[in-house]
Design goal:
about 45% helix; 8-stranded mixed β-sheet; two-stranded antiparallel sheet
Amino acid sequence: MPLVKRTACDSVRVAAKRIALILAGAVAKGAFEAGVVQELVHRDVRIARIVATSSGALNGTLLASGVRARAVAATADRLVELWTDHAEWNQIFHLSIADLFRREGIFDDRKVQRLLRDNVKPSALRPGDDIELRLVTAPLHGTRGQLAGEPATTFESVLDFAGESFDSAAALDAVFVAASASAALPVAFAPVDVPALGPCVDGGTVNNTPIKWALEGPVGESVDAVVVVTTTVQTLPPMTGEIRGTHLVGRLAELLINERLYRDLREGERVNEQLRALGALRPALGDAAIDQVLAALQWQRRREIEIVTLRPEVELAGSAFSGFFNRALREQYIAAGRAEANRVLARW
């Protein structure tokens, strides 16, 4: 299979691109993602797949519904509005005495589910545009899977929802459960029961930037680029002073995000580098020899793929939870997301 060589000329027109969009976890800083998404969709980029976790799962669910309904720009505007006006702590967190008594968490997902139900309605179009939403969650009981190609118990599960999942209220129920499970940050939120998986928590605890889930299967093979949106800066500065309470939980979330993000992005870059090197050897060694190497690596279906990362240039102010108590801070996050999108997309 020929390698896909991308040049600067291939990247001139964003509107011509078919992308997989990855929305990483961010807690209250998910407002930054809303700003990025608003600028991205207003450039008419075609979103074929959304892979999301944590607060990115909530953003991704709303956005996927907009793609399905062919109203993606209006939905992105609505996402910004929700983060601005409806992301106060008392509209997100519902104290659960039962879960607190069981020491499973402080809050349940009741208000998160209500927010989704109020803002994600069944698509009136039959059929609507194709979209695939993949939500990453962490089943506490584990599930059968593979690690490094060998059978193993894994605590990472991907829940897939095709466009038809957004066409009826009954189908949407499963999407809402999966999204709230993916966003159930441990300690803060109690685990959410997902059919066939049992209690699940925030998928960002196991994989916050799942690039491999963006590239799997026919949909993954059809995309021109993977766009990763995260709220973590390239280099996370050391924190001074005491770390406790919400700052401890928030810092833990940021550490999980940053560590896995770096590894995932570097792995994607490494594969691209190796594919480019093999492609450069084709004239000298011939197609047959290179194809044998690809087969030996089980890379027959791999290709060079453009990876674009949208992240703040400087660390966003406040802790992971601060934005839930401060509208001005959320507006600051949204503005930062818009600015980053404009900066990167101007040269993409």
